[in-house]
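Hi, here's the filled form for the chain we discussed.

Project: internal
Contact: R.S.
Residues: 397
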Amino acid sequence: MKKKSIVIIVGLAVLIGAGAWYLGRGEQNAAPGEQQAGTPAAGDKNGKGGAQPPAIVNVVAPQRQDVPVVLQANASVTPVSTVDLHPQTTSTIRKVHIKEGQFVKAGELMFSLDDRSERANIDKARAQMARDAATFADLERQYKRSEELFAQKFIARSAVDTLKSQMDSARALVGAGQAALQAEQVNASYSAIRAPMAGRVGAINVFPGSLVQLSTSLTTITQLDPINIAFSVPEAALGELLAAQKSGAVTVEALGTAGGKPATGKLSFIDNTVDPLAGSIKVKALFDNKATSLWPGQYVTARVTVQTIRNAVVIPQAAIISNSRGTFVYVVDADQSAKQVPVTRLHAFGVNAAVSGLNGDEKVITEGKQNLRPGGKVKLAEAANPARAGKSAVAAQ
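And the returned structure, exactly as it came back:
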């Protein structure tokens, strides 16, 4: 029984070995390039072909144009000058000659104060000056007669000298009286308060009969034409701003929060110190404001054109890629493959940017670049979907 089992096992082993030898020989005898049915080709994945399909992309042509380099900042309108009117004497308001919000000229009468006391003092000073002048004239005549008498040896020299001293003292009193009269006239002039400059009157805080003192604010006058706007720019822009100022007048635009046509002025002031805490520097621009479109205290947006890049290459910012290796764009090469071109962003404005590194005749890839590799094949979206391109053309018409 044991011998029969051993014979069966040996026989099965021989049959298995013979089958394995036959299969191995059949594969060796197969023609080169042939495969058994159901076996994937070498390099295929899941039985699919190995060729990588081209990436679908959208492209744009760079534009050539002059690009202004503009600094933009929040600004406030400030008057060139403003005056807070105060009386220079204690008195009462006799008459108010102006109205609130009125435009006045330089020297125009605005307030009249009670000047009766000042006019009385002027009259008193004039009377004293007339008295001193009469005394001086009498002493002058006496001195001349004493000179004649001294020549005839009727009086001593000391008498002549005494009259000379008295005459000089009277002359000094006449001068003092004249100065006192001028002082009283100056005091009287304080009763008529006039506009120190042309401008617009603010709120009036007094009325006829009001008692005013040196600390009393009567009203304010603000110059509206011309007018300033003040704003701050980053210290990084200081070099460009100074270079632009040296090359000529720098144009500044002021746009109100309500929109409308911007006002145009000229850069007039750059502060001499950078604020170390804010990292910015204060600047001002002067505007003609005959139409009073700018108002003191108003907030506006200031735009300063520091330079203009002539004939710059402009592309969408969406086409620019930045990574650890630098900044570049993908362009479509002559063999319909993606090519990396290094670029430098010169100035960004809106959705576009002026760059260097392109000739301007390239096809710059804007969409689909996330699937690209240098040298990878690409196909334009319009060519990949003719029906969609046709619909776009009809819609454009």
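Let me know if anything looks off before we file it.
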